[in-house]
Amino acid sequence: MIHKPVNRAELRQLAKDARPELVNLQRRLFLKQSVGLGALTLLTGCSVETPAAVEGILAQMSHFNNWVQGALFNPNRLAQTFSEADITKPFPFNAYYAQSQAPVVNRVGYKLELAGLISDKTPWTLEQLAALPQQSQITRHCCVEGWSAIGKWGGVPLRTFLQRVGADMRAKYVHFKCADDYYCSLDMASALHPQTIIALTYADQELPVQYGFPMKIRVPTKLGFKNPKHIMSVMVTNDYPGGYWEDQGYNWFSGM
Ligand SMILES: Nc1nc2c(c(=O)[nH]1)N[C@H]1C(S)=C(S)[C@@H](COP(=O)(O)O)O[C@H]1N2
Ligand SMILES: [Mo]
Q: 99-137 as b/e, with b when 16 or more CB fall inside 10 Å?
């Protein structure tokens, strides 16, 4: 049983011990959407017989994992960056559907909606976003399904945007709703990370439909599924908003 950790070194050790198993378990969960009772018994050292007990243990582990990761997250640590020559071509597409099903958002009349703890909730056009200071990055995207790829994204630092619209930066979460059924939320520290951007371009071109037109949130310090595409709204909130995969048992923090 885990008792209250007393210091950072101990926290670090706990995280080291817990992470590989959690990551493996989550990987299996993600792929199969189910987990054998045997595996959980091995992992927890106690016998679990009912689906409710399995869910309880998973929820507890995930809660613990969020807490440890949040405590260890260094808001100043930068994700590794790469050169143009390292870019993966073609960059893979991924979603919970086939590429031909990717939602086509009409640029005419598009406005990014704002909600929650934001003082100016006036919706934003793509032209207005393009007029804010832009930043680009060549970083690695890691999908929990077991692949990674290096790509180049450009756009507005989410921090700049949140400041600009008067978001409450002390709130806990930033939540995104997408043009498909996807939704996703970030802890405020990750939302304000210097490499977290509202990506409007891929490879210096307007973001193509398959990579998330009109915009995706690029978060190189988090796994791929924490990078929502086709953003329609941004909400700042203190109420835990969850996420598409997170609500199916996947770890919410998923930092890397
Ligand atoms: N709206 C939306 N965003 C999404 C997803 C999705 O299905 N819908 N899939 C996520 C996952 S699991 C991955 S790996 C990346 C894939 O992004 P890519 O198509 O640019 O490689 O998008 C993430 N964001
Ligand atoms: Mo993914």
A: eeebbebeeeebebebebbbeeeeebebeebeebebebb
Q: Are 150 and 195 in contact (CB under 8 A)?
A: no
129-167: pLDDT as tens digits: 999 999 999 999 999 888 999 999 999 999 999 999 999
- Place domain 84-248 in its CATH homologous superfamily: Oxidoreductase, molybdopterin-binding domain (3.90.420.10)
Kindly report, as residue ranges, where domains of CATH 3.90.420.10 are found in the chain: 84-248
Q: How far is the CA of 146 from the centre of ligand 2 (A)?
A: 8
Nearest-atom number in ligand 1 for the CA of 202 is 20
What is the CA(68)–ligand 1 centre distance, in A? 25
